[in-house]
Design brief:
This protein has 664 residues and is α+β, with helices and mostly antiparallel strands. It is built from 18 helices and 39 strands. It folds into six domains: 100 residues, 3-Layer(aba) Sandwich (Rossmann fold); 70 residues, ATP-grasp fold, A domain (Dna Ligase, domain 1, 2-Layer Sandwich), CATH 3.30.1490; 131 residues, D-amino Acid Aminotransferase, Chain A, domain 1 (2-Layer Sandwich), CATH 3.30.470; 117 residues, D-amino Acid Aminotransferase, Chain A, domain 1; 122 residues, Glycoprotein, Type 4 Pilin, CATH 3.30.700.30; 66 residues, OB fold (Dihydrolipoamide Acetyltransferase, E2P). 27% of the residues lie in helices and 33% in strands. The structure holds adenosine-5'-diphosphate (ADP) (2 copies) and magnesium ion. One adenosine-5'-diphosphate (ADP) binds next to strand 12.
Length: 664
């Protein structure tokens, strides 16, 4: 076994590979671009080398820079992770030329599978079933249209050099073909620099079921069973599981053997995945699966396989790359239990799952537990940049049963908190808890079919979120009241105890109000016609425990800019407070200045510029909401400026008295 490993990747996969490498006693070397200088994978490595600017072409895809980093750091082997250079045959060649062990298949195997059309032709020869279609060289529009007609609609147009769902178009009838073809070619040209497409039968009720294979350099090859990756948006996976629900033993064997045949046909070594499209219109049948493509690398979703087999696939990769034999034979491999992976992405489900970028103001991932695994590559405060994949983390749950795994994973995700950018957290939870998903009524159209139940409308803010925003605001005042100003005394501070206050919030669905009544203990809060008794407690970690009509709710509320973000059960609701005290806080007055807590009229100014005043001393009287309020100094100090006089109308946040100094 080699003793040092350079990981030519970033994010969660770089961290995941290094975890195993460290356990095996290897020295690890990270590479990073400028924006990743403080990324977790850099911190984790024994040694790190800068390889260039943020743009992937100039760093993570720059073969010369990566090879130079390996040489400079004395690395003996290179693990490419997934994405980036992992399926780049030229990179595998460059490693070999530089005397580095490439942890992956031979360059020839990558080349054989690199183009979807050539791969399909090869598989047809190896008697692996393929989807009926046209994989030929003639790329004339009318020829392709005739082929589509021959195959029979619906058809799928795919980029020959494709990946990640780009350049893929479903076409339901001849009239749409020409336009779809142009779109697919354009997308393929810009994404892969290759406009060639293939046309194939669109499989009805398609399920994406793939087989994990492993081969060594001694002629051994095994399959580590299947993963069902049917839950997709935009032809890309978002939830994966193993084993596939409803998989008959004979079909598992048939698919496994086909996948091994595929690996053998191209002299494969290491970890690979053979992706099949399954026609599930008659349930899972051993004669209804078709080869789609082979991914000649470790897959994003490999943890579900690890959890049902108890194996470490990265360890297997390293052993095979070092020339060892596969650790186990086919007959020694067993499935135990069920595992489900959810990919947490910075993206907006309500907006076509478009990627989101920005700073992770808040990121709390579920705790790792015996049956919960968390693979992450970003931390709170980190940036999800537009340069790279917007995946934040993968969370994987395992249980003896599928139902158990689904609910364990959903429960774990409910403890996560993401704020600062849009994420699919709430969408993942809703999907994992969806009845039809629980019943395994799945195919690749599942998300599109159940969209309205899985994706909350962009504007909906539930009552609880509104109540939490109000309770948070009240709890903040309580803290301030304890620490300084008599102004902020919460309970009944506005004359008497029967006083009510209206809190206004701007939410995406319009203005929402909460009527607050102060009780001896806690508050009475009304939203619309519903009134509840509530109180709130701040936990030491900053989260809130609210009691609403006896119901306990744990949540977190954060100030983000001038807004409040309510983090509740995987949702993040944004509310803009229209609260006099809040507004005063965010005005540009300096800390000791006295500001108007609400809009009103100055009735009287009780001090003069140059006066020294004591904390709590009355400075002015403001008439607002049909009441008179005494504005008292928040601290000791000398008054330098009194911008307003009796009769003036002031807005909330207006500086009533400027202080020159705050006495000790
Ligand atoms: P899979 O079938 O495993 O989803 P994909 O071909 O879609 O395979 O890509 C796998 C993953 O690799 C993607 O989800 C993405 O995270 C990552 N990836 C692919 N290309 C890039 C790239 N150019 N930069 C960064 N990450 C990439
Ligand atoms: P990628 O390179 O993005 O991984 P794939 O060829 O593996 O592209 O296909 C991605 C997804 O597209 C599949 O998981 C499946 O949902 C859908 N798909 C691909 N081929 C077909 C087909 N013939 N019929 C129906 N759906 C298909
Ligand atoms: Mg694929």
């Amino acid at each position: 076994m080699f003793s040092s490993l350079l990981v030519a990747n970033r994010g969660e996969i770089a961290c995941r590979v290094m975890r195993t490498a460290h356990r095996m006693g290897l020295r690890t070397i990270a590479v990073y671009s400028d924006v990743d200088a403080h990324a977790p994978h850099v911190a984790m490595a024994d040694h790190a080398v800068r390889i260039g600017p943020a743009a992937p072409r100039e760093s993570y895809l720059n073969i010369e820079a990566v090879i130079a980093a390996a040489k400079a750091s004395g690395a003996e082997a290179v693990h490419p992770g997934y994405g980036f250079l992992s399926e780049n045959a030229a990179f595998a060649d460059a490693c070999a030329k530089a005397g580095l062990v490439f942890v992956g298949p031979p360059a020839s195997a990558i080349r054989a599978m690199g183009l979807k059309d050539a791969a399909k032709a090869l598989m047809a020869k190896a008697k692996v079933p393929i989807v009926p279609g046209y994989h030929g060289d003639n790329q004339q529009d009318d020829h392709l249209a005739r082929e589509a007609e021959r195959i029979g609609y619906p058809v799928l147009i795919k980029a020959v050099a494709g990946g990640g769902g780009k350049g893929m178009r479903r076409v339901d009838d001849a009239g749409e073909f020409a336009a779809a073809l142009q779109g697919a070619k354009r997308e393929a040209q810009s994404a892969f620099g290759d406009a060639r497409v293939l046309v194939e039968k669109y499989v009805e009720r398609p399920r994406h079921i793939e087989i994990q294979v492993f081969a060594d350099s001694h002629g051994n090859a095994v399959y580590l069973f299947e993963r069902d990756c049917s839950l997709q948006r935009r032809h890309q996976k978002v939830i994966e599981e193993a084993p596939a629900p409803g998989m008959p033993a004979n079909m598992r064997r048939a698919m496994g053997e086909a996948a091994v045949a595929c690996a053998k046909a191209i002299g494969y070594q290491g970890a690979g995945t053979v992706e099949f499209i399954v026609d599930a219109s008659r349930g899972l049948k051993s004669d209804a699966f078709y080869f789609m493509e082979m991914n000649t690398r470790l897959q994003v979703e490999h943890p579900v396989t690890e959890m049902i087999t108890g194996l470490d696939l990265v360890e297997w990769q390293l052993r095979v790359a070092a020339g060892e034999k596969l650790p186990l034979k086919q007959s020694e491999l067993k499935i135990h239990g069920h595992a489900v992976e959810a990919r947490l992405y910075a993206e907006d489900p309500a907006n076509g799952f478009l990627p989101s970028s920005g700073r992770l103001v808040r990121l709390k991932l579920p705790e790792s537990a015996p049956h919960i695994r968390v693979d992450a590559g970003v931390v709170e405060g980190g940036e999800v940049s537009t340069f790279y994949d917007p995946m934040i983390a993968k969370v994987i749950g395992w249980d003896e049963t599928r139902a158990g795994a689904l609910s364990l994973l959903a429960d774990a995700l409910e403890t996560a908190e993401v704020a600062g950018l849009r994420s699919n957290l709430a969408f993942l939870i809703a999907t994992l808890r969806h009845k039809s998903f629980g019943d395994a009524e799945i195919d690749t159209n599942f998300i599109a079919r159940h969209k309205s139940e899985l994706i909350p409308g962009p504007g909906e803010v539930p009552e609880d979120a509104l109540l939490l925003a109000a309770l948070f605001t009240l709890s903040e005042r309580r803290v301030r009241a304890r620490t300084h100003s008599p102004w902020d005394i919460v309970d009944g501070w506005r004359v008497g105890t029967s006083q009510e206050e209206v809190m206004r919030f701007d939410a995406a669905d319009g203005e929402r109000t909460v009527l607050v009544k102060y009780l001896a203990h806690g508050f009475r809060l009304s939203v619309g016609s519903r009134a509840v008794e509530a109180d709130v407690l701040r936990e030491p970690d900053g989260s809130l425990t609210a009691t609403i009509d006896g119901r306990e709710i744990r949540a977190r509320v954060l100030h983000i800019g001038g807004d409040l973000a309510v983090l509740l059960k995987g949702h993040t609701y944004t509310l803009s407070p229209f609260d006099p005290l809040e507004a005063a806080e965010h005005s540009d007055a300096s800390a000791q200045d006295l500001v108007a807590p609400m809009p009103g009229k100055i009735i009287q100014v009780l001090v003069k510029a140059g006066d020294a005043v004591k904390r709590g001393q009355a400075v002015a009287i403001l008439e607002a909401m049909k009441m008179e309020h005494t504005l008292a100094a928040q601290n000791d100090g000398v008054i330098s400026e009194l911008p307003w006089s009796a009769g003036d109308q002031v807005s909330e946040g207006a500086v009533i008295a400027k202080f020159t100094e705050a006495a000790a």
